[in-house]
Design brief:
Number of helices: 9
Oligomer: single chain
Keywords: Methyltransferase, Transferase, Ubiquinone
Radius of gyration: 19 Å
Number of strands: 8
Order of helices and strands: HHEHEHEEHEEHHEHHE
Protein name: Ubiquinone/menaquinone biosynthesis C-methylase UbiE
Pfam families: Methyltransf_11 (PF08241)
Distance between the termini: 33 Å
Domain Methyltransferase type: 36-131
Strand content: 15-25%
InterPro entries: Methyltransf_11, SAM-dependent_MTases_sf
Structural class: alpha/beta
Shape: globular
């Protein structure tokens, strides 16, 4: 999804009330030192910072220099550090944390998700908390979708898995990853990330159209089922998203655990 407007897309889709509620459920508390791994636009980092006051600090880490510039300009303040880093590499230089938040990161690392969480755990203090947050079965849960469009979207996602290491089913794997690594006091929460019906919401249409503008081009997808190529596919997608009869939903799974002696 890397593009010129990606920082803005990530920023506008975040619901502050939801993030706050989820982080409190996970166990965030005032005074903690927190890592927001894959911090994106920095908005979530800022929300986590508010939750650890008084006395807490947050480090936001992301691989994109452009997103970090956006984050620093919009959300930078004393007590928040934004650092560029490769989340597939050791992170010991960041120090130790009481709480690590990993939201919408592991879906991009089908072959590396378990080893990455093990790596993150190395930055946790004994008893520290890690919270993994990701989607599941994304974006296949539609009803009322034209057969040709559904077939094409599934083909796109299959190629995305093969060519980019994307995992649309990472949500259901989070518990097992945390369990296998020896975390304790594990808890899981399943929520609706998005439920779409009736009149189209402008933000939802914007977010989906951004994906179909960027992803097929990145993987050089061939629209064999569309005589008019990408443009015909785009128009059919727009018509489906705007249809008040269509129904779509995406599950969100959160998994939290505490670092025990075996981790």
């Amino acid at each position: 999804m890397e593009s010129e407007g990606e920082s803005h897309r990530l920023d506008v889709k975040i619901d502050a009330e939801t993030i706050t509620r989820q982080a409190i459920w996970a166990g965030i508390k005032p005074g903690m030192r927190v890592a927001d791994l894959g911090c994106g636009s920095g908005k979530v980092t800022s929300l986590l910072y508010d939750l650890v006051q008084p006395g807490g600090t947050v480090v936001g880490v992301d691989g994109s220099a452009a997103r970090l510039v956006y984050a620093q300009e919009k959300y930078g303040r004393k007590g928040i550090d934004f650092i560029q880093g490769n989340l597939t590499q050791p992170l010991g230089h960041l120090g130790q944390f009481d709480f690590i938040w990993v939201r919408f990161v592991l879906e991009y690392y089908l072959s590396k998700s378990s080893s990455m969480v093990k790596n993150f755990a190395g930055c946790l203090k004994p008893g520290g908390i890690i919270c993994l947050v990701d989607l599941d079965h994304n974006p296949f849960n539609y009803y009322g979708i034209p057969e040709r469009l559904e077939h094409t979207l599934k083909k796109i996602m299959k190629e995305v898995e093969e060519k980019t290491d994307f995992d649309p089913f990472i949500g259901r794997k989070l518990y097992s990853i945390v369990y296998d690594l020896g975390f304790e006091d594990i808890d899981v929460r399943v929520e609706n990330y998005r439920v779409t019906f009736g009149k189209a919401k402008e933000l939802e249409v914007f977010n989906m159209l951004k994906k179909i503008e960027i992803v097929p081009e990145k993987i050089k997808f061939q629209f064999d089922d569309y005589q008019g190529g990408y443009e015909e596919f785009y128009q059919e997608t727009l018509a489906f998203l705007s249809d008040p009869r269509r129904f779509a939903y995406t599950p969100l799974i959160l998994c939290r655990g505490s670092k025990g002696a075996k981790v």
